[in-house]
Amino acid sequence: MTTSAFLADCRARLAFDLLANTWNAVVLRALRDGPRRPVELRERIGGISSKVLTETLRRLQFNGLVDRRPLPGAPPRVEYRLTELGHSFLGPIEAVGAWAFEHGDEVMAAQERGGAAAGDDAGAGNDAGAGAGAV
User: Fold this and answer.
1) CA-CA distance, 78 to 37, in Å (whole number)?
2) What residues does 70 pair with on adjacent strands?
3) Distance from C-alpha of 67 to C-alpha of 27, rounded to nearest angstrom
């Protein structure tokens, strides 16, 4: 197995793929204090639909980061908790979060500059006959 983070068979790419989905890290952080039922997770997270939460929980369970446990009683209910592997992934998530907190303003400023530059460039290439109103 290679150690290059840019090759498909590299283990680092697994972590990058897990971090690439915004909801993965959010759900894992919401579970850091203990097990939660899906309705509790939705309340704690906010802004996530039931469908997206279910997809995220299934993806995290598939990757071994979350465990799904049925609860006794009726109606049928479940709760989700972090596995040991899931707990071990909180460190990198916290590190990325700390970096974002420290550098977020810089990133947003760069995005604004890039957006303004893209707007300036939009009018620069009209020699091809596309016209000013072309989309």
Assistant:
1) 6
2) 78
3) 13
